[in-house]
Design goal:
This protein is of the alpha+beta class. It is built from 7 helices and 7 strands, in the order βαααββααβαβαββ. It has a single domain, classed as Gcn5-related N-acetyltransferase (GNAT) (Aminopeptidase). A 7-stranded mixed sheet has the order 1-2-3-4-5-7-6, sandwiched between helices. α1 crosses α3 and α3 crosses α4.
Length: 201
């Protein structure tokens, strides 16, 4: 297995994987799969967003991209998120803007706030054909190395409460569940997780 930073030519595989990390949310946010993938693709090429090439790592297995992770210091999260929103609105019909903005605002309130001094994993997904071969776990280990290099004491992430597979993976990788948010009319429940740097998983 090889872990590396994403390159511009990885865009097609990376966009598909980042989309699969939260397909329902991406579709609702952009107004369908096609628009969502187009927004992720633009964001990958545009520095400063949650999906920009400079914050994406990939795991390669057998010469192909098996998994992708978007991650960055929490201190960058708000501005990167706003930059992604601006790109999404640019590719969204004006009549959908109100719904997109409502979902953006609701999402910010619904997910637990990660600790400020942490390295945040915004998206993580593995190709369905290459699961259970350690790609996601290897990317989480890379996130810890990145946190350590930045003198950040923890890696944080969140997932939906009903995503039992992801929660089991994160528990086995040394993450603790530290906060919960109940489901709302628009959004599922979320759980926040933390892994201190240096903990053996």
């Amino acid at each position: 297995m090889r872990i590396r930073k994403a390159r511009q030519e990885d865009v097609e595989a990376v966009a598909e994987l980042l989309f699969e990390s939260a397909p329902d949310m991406y579709e609702r946010f952009s107004g369908g799969r096609r628009r969502a993938l187009a927004t992720i693709t633009r964001a990958f090429h545009d520095p400063g967003t949650v999906a920009s090439c400079e914050v994406v790592w990939v795991a390669e297995l057998d010469g192909r991209i098996a998994a992708a992770m978007s991650a960055f210091p929490v201190a960058e999260a708000a501005e990167r998120s706003r930059a992604y929103l601006r790109l999404a609105l640019r590719g969204t019909p004006v009549w959908r803007w109100a719904g997109t903005l409502r979902l953006y605002s609701a999402g910010g309130r619904a997910s637990p706030r990660p600790r400020e001094d942490s390295f945040y994993v915004d998206a993580l997904a593995t190709d369905a054909a290459l699961r259970r071969r350690g790609a996601a776990r290897a990317l989480l280990d890379e996130a810890e190395r990145e946190a350590s290099a930045r003198s950040l004491p923890a890696v944080t992430l969140d997932t939906t409460m009903n995503n039992e597979g992801a929660r089991a993976l994160y528990a086995s990788a040394g993450f603790d569940e530290v906060a919960y948010r109940a489901a709302t009319r628009r959004l599922p429940g979320f759980v926040a997780l933390v892994r201190p740097v240096g903990r053996d998983s």
